């Protein structure tokens, strides 16, 4: 039984219950009469206190067991209702598998995030990263669970594509060592699985992808990675309104379940960032604000002196500072902005009757800005072709995509969640490089 | 409510229950008094029969609704206990959203798998691919569920690495358009997430990855893809025996649950491949056979005339024909082969005392050959370094990996499941290109 299972099923704990913990030493203190080891087994941020008494201290050479060592301890649980953790382990046997070398970089003393980013293979052995990665795991599974319980089909959109994505030059190329077109054509790492997901929504109705996406992003910000994970649901017979409702319900469900299932990790993260739980609870209990892009522009104009980019006008792409200000200062919570100008959005979005805007939405959250981007898709074959021609996008490579409109098309809508941004939002960490085990950014590959 | 939910909760169906189906037309037959449309909503391979009577046939222009059209039908359920499906829908209203153009390639008549492979964006609208992808989805979720229920942490191993994998020349390279080392060094698409998973097992104890992996595989076989998904669990405090037990239990659990939860799809697949369910049930109810590599060699020698490669000797790498023969003819079921010669296995595997073999296992299954490959990992820093030097693998780029042995190492074991091979095994399809929505192989990228 893991420590997490023990903590979760407290009622099963009885005085003297046999228990064995396999894990790593977090601390070792005491005197020559009684010593306390705290052990973490990786299942929770909480540790188990192990008590060692009498001659065992010397026999087992306890004083020399250092932080980080791998260890197996058998013993009996002792109830301690008055303590922070209502049980501890009285050790009967102890085996140190591997003591750590002296240069083990994770020590009791505080270390900076910058320093920890240099050792991504070890940083999860701190309380902070242990908590972040446990929450990341919870969010992963809760997202799958949500979609499966709601009748969605998980599909694998291809990673390697012949499509260079939405923008120019931001795509990574793939080839074999000979650089002789292994795929007989230029091949790219996908920036989205959406187009392929649309083809599966036409037939399976409700589908979602959950996989890595790539961008040759050269800007070094705290919100961008060259390799990140995306969740992209796509649903036939859904319009923009339906898909915003879905996004809101999905987020609220996975966040609520994560808070409920991982109270110790959320408590720890809240101790590092005291507004975290309040902010999340507020989101859970409030109706999502939906604002029209044109109204957002009018609002932002009133605050233009707060921005570096003070030229606010209909047709502009909102900068990160505008998105954050809107969510943090004006709405004071998550906000879905809808009906963006078509010229700043992708060709496949549903064209509104005004001929100026498209049925897109971005979900903006405090502290991060854009968390989700989505839209209803254009249903008309002719409108799509015209839009592609206007934007000088060759239609031939996407003929298969256009054809979906001719073969039993139903209105289709979907969105993409930047998974690491969701991890940031729920854990309260402020740099996206701390939301993924081994971050990849321009100019470096660590480990 | 989806059709799948309706079928699964049969007890909720009452005569006259209001029901709306949104989906695609599978067939349209009848006469001018009564017509039958069968509709599929993507949630199951089963279709709903819709009955249209009297003047509605003409008013709604039923005769012109063709296969593949998207449609919304409201009506009342009518119980038909004597029929194959115990209910049908009597239509009250019907709306065709999009009739298909005449060149829609999915027609009632049989089409070949080769032909369908040319249209990966449409082939899921056949019974076969609908079933395969629904089973693929079930296996995906059951695997996550199994690991989560057993205390594993899902982690994202990086896709882009500085490590060119286990073999030479089989790795795909990544760069940006300028081909000027976007990552300031040669960057590869990962062939395994194992080394990174090992670093997370040291701390989280039980972890697993589920993501795409890549190989510049030039052989055109029915069992290889350039892009495929892998599941790689890694567990600290586990040895080879533990991890074989885990692999067996994982496979049996996810297959059993998939058969139970998707009876209609498995029934359809069994109709295409009549031994399928028998084979799977036999696996579920039998203890996994475990054989030592050296004994396998002795066995295969007896049958050497059955092989193209007749030279069977200790030290050889088993060819696919040997693996299949062993599983199909000798064991007649899945078999774990253990203790392979170290020279045909990777540097990180635990070296046995005989100095000749390593604690590796391959799980071989009938029809496919290798489904899983795994091992206990070498625990000794010095042995690892020596082995790398013998194999001329530079130690410097993997110093971080070696260091795991110095920082509280616990015996660690793990394996990788080729996910598409598992899909083949459970669905009975014989070409791996039919186990993934958009297959990627050397020389072509379709869609």
TrEMBL record, chains A, B:
Enzyme Commission code: 6.1.1.22
Signal peptide: none
Compartment(s) where it occurs, according to its Swiss-Prot or TrEMBL record: Cytoplasm
Pfam families for the chain: tRNA-synt_2 (PF00152), tRNA_anti-codon (PF01336)
GO BP of this protein: asparaginyl-tRNA aminoacylation
GO molecular function, a single term: asparagine-tRNA ligase activity
Alphabetized UniProt keyword annotations: Aminoacyl-tRNA synthetase, ATP-binding, Cytoplasm, Ligase, Nucleotide-binding, Protein biosynthesis
Gene Ontology cellular component list: cytoplasm
Domain Aminoacyl-transfer RNA synthetases class-II family profile: 135-437
Catalytic activity: tRNA(Asn) + L-asparagine + ATP = L-asparaginyl-tRNA(Asn) + AMP + diphosphate + H(+)
Family indicated by similarity: Belongs to the class-II aminoacyl-tRNA synthetase family.
Subunit-structure text: Homodimer.
The name this protein goes by in its record: Asparagine--tRNA ligase
Organism encoding this protein: Metamycoplasma phocicerebrale
Name of the gene encoding the protein in the UniProt record: asnS
